[in-house]
Amino acid sequence: MRTQPYIMQVDLEDKPCLVVGGGPIALHKTHSLVVSGAKVTVVSSSFHDGFDELSLDARHERKFEDVDIEGMFLVHAATNHPDVNHHIADICSGQNIWFCVADDASKGAFGTPALLDLGDLRIAVSTNGLSPSYGARIRREIGGLVPDHVNDYLHFLCDARERSKAAISELQLRMRFNTYLASEEGEQLFVASDNDALQTLVSELLARPESIPEHFTPKWD
Questions:
Q1: CATH class of the 16-112 domain in this structure
Q2: Residue pair 179/154 in contact by the 8 Å Cβ criterion
Q3: What are the extents of the domains in the chain?
Q4: What is the pLDDT of residue 114?
């Protein structure tokens, strides 16, 4: 049986991270780390102009040195030189540091999928490193399917979910309630109703969650 990478989100706030490389790919990796709140150090003999717009912890315009990795939580090897990238990978592997190799997904301890970032809705698309370009295409196509109201809807669902924790003690009924509101039918009600009507609906469902059709209860095989 072929193993699959474990997909997760990681809290990088205030974590020391290193990007080695100064081209467009390194810039993309660096930007993602910066918006995640990481303390980012970049090292390269030259830098894309876009680096000037990023808030970095440190920027070293020189060749990579092994000592650059010391104390890092996570490292991106994104140079144009495979031998340098693989050397960085070997050092990180020996020190149990999370690392990603831009030109060889199989070499890294983790990969970064194509990300559709729509505020609180974030969708990652991975091809297990086989074709990042195809992953990016699928990301764009999915983006065209997401409605403009998605973030308002997510906040509505979050509020209803929090209310259900106190109002519905039985787990199965609580799951049925939340699944119903998150369903296509629930989303249509959200779009068609004003806030007062939505709050009335939620209150009624919280009082009688058993009135929601049973097929909205999630089932796992």
A1: alpha beta
A2: no
A3: 16-112, 113-146, 150-216
A4: 87
Q: Which two tokens stand for residue 158?
A: 């979050």
Q: Please give the radius of gyration of the chain, using alpha carbons only, rounded to the nearest integer.
A: 23
Instruction: Give per-residue pLDDT as tens, 74-125.
Output: 999 999 999 999 999 999 999 999 999 998 877 889 988 889 999 999 999 9
Alpha helices (H) in 124-183, listed in sequence order: 132-143, 150-167, 171-181
The tokens for 136 are 């990016």
- C-alpha separations of 208 from 24, 97, 167, 186, 196 in Å: 55, 51, 10, 16, 19
Q: CATH topology for 113-146?
A: Double Stranded RNA Binding Domain (3.30.160)
What is the rounded distance in angstroms from the CA atom of residue 63 to the CA atom of residue 75? Answer: 15
Buried b (16+ CB within 10 A) or exposed e, 121-132: eeeebbbebeeb
Cα–Cα distance for residue pair 15/43, rounded to 1 Å: 17
Q: Which two tokens stand for residue 22?
A: 């100064």
CA-based nearest residue to 61, from 1, 20, 99, 24: 20
Ramachandran region of residue 167, left (φ > 0), alpha (ψ -120 to 50) or beta?
alpha
- Predicted model pTM: 0.80
